[in-house]
Amino acid sequence: MLTEAETATLESLSERARSDFQTIADKVRLCRYAWSINREEIDLCKEWLELYCCPRATINYRWGCAYNAKHSVERWTDKHKPKHHYISEFSFLAAALELGY
Length: 101
Hints:
Radius of gyration: 14 Å
Number of strands: 0
Order of helices and strands: HHHHHH
Structural class: mainly alpha
Strand content: under 5%
């Protein structure tokens, strides 16, 4: 079941974007544990998103998916943090949702 905000957003999207949004929302809903268990991963993803991304009015299909983006965050942590950090796809999705993407 979608929240009221999710339903409003969903109604304003095109058919293709609507199916993508439902898939992402379902995936995150199934993995809510990421908010509490992987807080460090989420914080790293939020830091990366704030440095390298900006919100858009439309979905950027050229970027790929959260799975590709999480690898970018892992490579960034290798270069800019003292140790390698594993980043789960769900932590990346949680960070993006927390920042309003």
